[in-house]
């Protein structure tokens, strides 16, 4: 595993639900935002089936407010919602077209999303379908679609090679040192009250311990977040 020290000029984080990016890579995004990186957060679903689930429209509105609040905490420059219904994401041509349009519009050097190959986490949890579907769609959009003009020519000019950092992975090969930014990550997670309020009393300790454990795995002091670094094409 190596230390990922690059600070991109532009980074695009694409995740399925309103709280996913904060949990997966909030400290990395907060760190980059302080280093003059233009950070864009794109969220695929409304999160309408999260929270108490009683009124999907109310839940979606509440989670949008929380998403914007968390974005301000992290220093995100742009928040984009694709507004699919929770639980109904699919790796379709239409979704890939929208993702390619985002990529060609913002032209990031780095895209962050969840690892769709990570399915079973022990016997306690397996990865949400929305995470898996979106992860594959993002990878398909980054390469080959965004790089080749014949794919979605209406979406803009092709981009150069993009690095992808996959979070929530079972095969990490890169660590980002996040000393001093874990607290920002926790504050951003706390903004997502509809989904995470039930973890409030244990959140600080759990997030800090996970950050320290990630640093140890990466051979870093202090705190870190882990990713699987992949590149599409040669």
From TrEMBL:
Coiled coil: none annotated. Its EC number is 3.5.1.-. InterPro entries: GlcNAc_PI_deacetylase-related, LmbE-like_dom_sf. The keyword Hydrolase applies. One of its GO terms (molecular function) is hydrolase activity. It comes from the Bacteria. Keywords: Hydrolase. It is an enzyme of class 3 (hydrolase). This is PIG-L deacetylase family protein. It comes from Ferrimicrobium acidiphilum.
């Amino acid at each position: 595993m190596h230390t990922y020290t690059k600070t991109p000029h532009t980074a695009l984080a694409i995740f399925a639900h309103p709280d996913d990016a904060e949990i997966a890579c909030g400290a990395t995004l907060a760190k980059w935002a302080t280093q003059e990186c233009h950070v864009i957060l794109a969220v695929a679903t409304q999160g309408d089936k999260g929270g108490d689930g009683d009124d999907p429209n109310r839940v979606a509105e509440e989670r949008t407010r929380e998403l914007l609040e968390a974005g301000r905490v992290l220093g995100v420059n742009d928040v984009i919602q694709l507004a699919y219904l929770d639980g109904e994401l699919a790796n379709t041509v239409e979704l890939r077209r929208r993702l390619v349009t985002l990529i060609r519009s913002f032209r990031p050097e780095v895209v962050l999303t969840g690892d769709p190959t990570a399915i079973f986490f022990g016997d306690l949890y397996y990865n949400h379908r929305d995470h898996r579907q979106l992860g594959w769609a993002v990878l398909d959009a980054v390469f080959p679609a965004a790089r080749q003009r014949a794919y979605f020519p209406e979406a803009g000019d092709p981009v150069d090679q993009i690095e992808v950092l996959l979070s929530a992975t079972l095969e990490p090969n890169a660590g980002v040192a996040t000393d001093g930014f874990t607290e920002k990550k926790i504050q951003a997670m706390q903004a997502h009250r509809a989904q995470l309020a039930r973890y409030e009393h244990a959140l600080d300790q759990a997030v800090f311990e996970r950050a320290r454990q990630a640093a140890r795995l990466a051979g870093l002091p202090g705190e870190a977040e882990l990713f699987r670094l992949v590149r599409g094409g040669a």
